[in-house]
Fold this protein.
Amino acid sequence: MTSTPRPDDLLAQLGSLTTEAFRPELAEIDRLPTLDIARLMNGEDAQVAAAVAARLPEIAAAVDAIAARMERGGRLVYAGAGTAGRLGVLDASECPPTFNAAPGQVVGLVAGGPPAMVTSVEGAEDSRELARADLAGLALAAGDTVVGISASGRTPYAIGAVEYARSAGALTVGLACNPGSALAAAAEHGIEVVVGPELLTGSTRLKAGTAQKLVLNMLSTITMIRLGKTYGNLMVDVRASNEKLRARSRRIVSLATGADDAEIERALDVTGGEVKNAILVLLAGVDGPSATRLLEESGGHLRAALAAARS
């Protein structure tokens, strides 16, 4: 069983965290005009990008390690509680439509399960065992990556996820917003984006949440770039699941090839609507089945497939 900290111990822990610090200069913020409060919040948010920039070497190292695992078939799993967990689920849920990621390739776990996406599940964040059970339920393997997310860096659920992942031989990343965090120390790749005290004391859905969202964007997006899910800055693996995305698919093929509308429609038709394949048909002058074969042989990397077709 996980021991629950005594109230006095927990108060001492919280009092030592940068993200929980009280800012006396903002003690009368509720008396300010609305526009002044908005300016204060905007000024606070403007500091986040610089805090992330200070951790770019650690972020890049984590991305390279994640991409190497995923290139071999591994999964990317986010695990966190509250806002941190919800941000992980959000990032994971956006990977299939954006990058045509396979179901289950990127997974988000939030302490307390799906109900915790919309309401607080009391006590879930305090359980290391719950994190271990959630990961065991995924049949976590050594080829996978687990990213524990916690603004405080002390959340038992996130730490438990990283500890279990390391015991399974998986790659681990710990994303926190306090220096010297237990979460970063538990992971192979620690990323501590220190954004400082919040506008509202302890409300880590603000700057800390923004910082976590920025880092998760980088981890997933740059990993997908490394995996060949883009061609330049075009989302060539986009899944055309609705009219907007079908229109975007046609525009991506147009931007990549310069072909006219009729040529684009024919290329998309012979490739079953697959953007990468259609670009290869148009730029390399191959037929649909050949485009499929070339992409399979190149591991899905369009540039490599184009080079092979032209050689």
Remarks:
- The chain has a mean pLDDT of 93.
